[in-house]
Here is the input.
Amino acid sequence: MNDTAIFAPLLIKIKIRYMNLHEYQGKEILASYGVTVQRGIVASTPDEAVAAAKKLSEETGTGWWVLKAQIHAGGRGKGGGVKLAKSLDDVKNIASDIIGMQLVTPQTSAEGKKVHQVLVAEDVYYPGDSETSEIYMSVLLNRNTGRNMIMYSTEGGMDIEEVADKTPHLIFTEEIDPKVGLQGFQARKIAFNLGLSGKAFKEMTKFVMSLYKAYDGIDASLFEINPVLKTSDDKILAVDAKVTLDDNGLFRHKDYAEMRDKREEDPIDVEAGEAGLNFVNLDGNVGCMVNGAGLAMATMDIIKMAGGNPANFLDVGGTADAARVEKAFRIILQDEKVEAILVNIFGGIVRCDRVAQGVIDAYQNIGDINVPIIVRLQGTNAEEAKKMIDESGLEVHSAIVLKEAADKVKELIG
Here is the structure.
């Protein structure tokens, strides 16, 4: 079996289960758990940005401000989404430039992402201070061991992938035993490996303990802070915050669920989610409509093995009625790369003849479907379903065996 078939289930699982937060939202959560953060105020207009800068000056005494585009992607500075303002006029001008821009970073598509908000943050770097240092730190699950771990490095401010490639000896990890949680000696070990001493050592130990408490407390799947800043007066604070939440834990954190920014997500993904469909857009040319995640993964793999490429993962669930089937068709057909659609339904909870009727109704309601549709229905009333498809008079091809369906797809798309 090829690599795409092997890794498809993992990629799908990652994309379905997680929700990203903006930097300002992540910092709010960190602060609530006692983590010291770079203070800032989010703004949606240039005037709001100026007001935020004035308020920060009153509260912190800062005379310079950092304006950061709020999008769900890293590398914002490389695309012009992070800039320093040395006056209120600068704040207004920079905010005018960033808000509304289409920001392209190494982690976005070529189209980039539209910026709707900026975070106006206090400048925490002391001019001409050579004793300030930047640290990389993240908390995440080590899938190889099934344990949470803290990854950290003295090379903060850089892409951690580049550090791992060029200087892997500068990356440290600390695994946490789930039975006892993060222990004090582990936090002290992290501070020691970072070369800290005195007040900075104590501050880092406290920082690490609070960071892990936040990660564990909100059911996060990732906390990444790059950089954690050590100032010349030995303060330790989070200058950035990338936070990803586990969707499966959101029922315990309804306030965090409300932080979801649908503007940052693919509109098709949002539409599918609102319709109750599990959908992930991929790069292939064969649309898939299946009931059940396991069957969907098997369908994608068999398409790949037959020489095709799955264009999506779409699980219509156990109630594949006519309305859901029609909605699924409409979502798949929004992808211009789709050259064929394979419907693979096992009739257990739902009867195959009902699914067949749903396919026929959807085909007639949508109209002008210019790609071949291959339907494979197995289970309850499968024979009746095949007969309905064959006698419908529509350009719909039926199949019995999954490999037969995949080969039919390959034949039709050449």
